[in-house]
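ingest -> validate -> predict -> emit
validate: passed (alphabet ok, no gaps, 256 aa)
predict: started
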Amino acid sequence: SEISTREMARTPSTNWPPSLADVLQRLYEFPTPSLLLGVGEDGAPFQMDLNNPSSGALLICGDEKAETSYLLRGVIASVIKINPPNEVTISILTKRLDEFIDFSSCDHCQEIIPCNEEVASELILELANIAEQRRKGEPIDATMLLIIDDLVECVSYLSETAYNRLYWLIRHGPRYCIWTLAALPTERLNEIEARYLTAFRTRLFGHIQDRSVVVQLSGETNLPCHRLKPAQFYLPFHGEWLPFWACNSDNFSNGG
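emit:
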C-alpha cells in the first residue's frame, strides 16, 4: 500500500501525542524516500512511500489553519529527518512565512516563497517543466515536494498558465516524483474549482464542524470529523477512515 503502518508499542512514559523525535527514535529504519503522516491511537506510525505514486497528491482539509499547518510542519520535519537532502527536496508556498521559516536553513529546503508574489508562478512552471522532462525520459535525481500552506490563497495569485500547470502537476506529478501537499481551509471551499479537488487522490481531514462539508469532500455521510481533537485527523487506509495524530515538531532543528 502507498500508506503503510507498522507496530510500535505505546509506552506509559510516552507523552501523547508523541513528538516526532520520539517516534523516529523508536523506529530504527524508515525506507527512503518516504514521509511520516503521524501515529495512530495505538502508537503505530503511518508513513507514505514517495516511490509509489498511487496515493497521488495529498490534500489536508480542516476548519482551522493552525491545525492544517501543524500537520504540514510535522510532515516537512519528518521528510528532513528521514531522507538525505540529495534524495528529497522541499519547496514551500505560503503567505505566512513565519510559520515555516525555521526550515529555511535545512539542506532539503530549496525555497520558502510568498504565494502572493510572481515568483510563486515561476516555481510552479519550473516544477511542471521538470515533470515534463522526466516524462520524456530524463533521469530522476531527487524526489521533489511542493508544500502549499493554503491552496485557495495560492491559486488566487497565480498567472493563468501557472494555474493550469499546477492542476496538471497535482494530477500527474507523483508519477515523476514531484508531489504536491496542500492545505485547504474549509471556509473557502467554494472558492476552489471542483476539478482541483478531484485532482488530489488522497485527502486527510481535521476538525470540520459542518457535516455537509465533510460529505462534499469525502463522500462519506458518517465520518465524524466534528469530534476530532486538535492535531487529530482522519486518513483513508485499506478501505477505512482511521484517526491519527500529527506529530509535534515544535522543537524541530536541523540537527536534533
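The first helix runs from residue 20 to 26.
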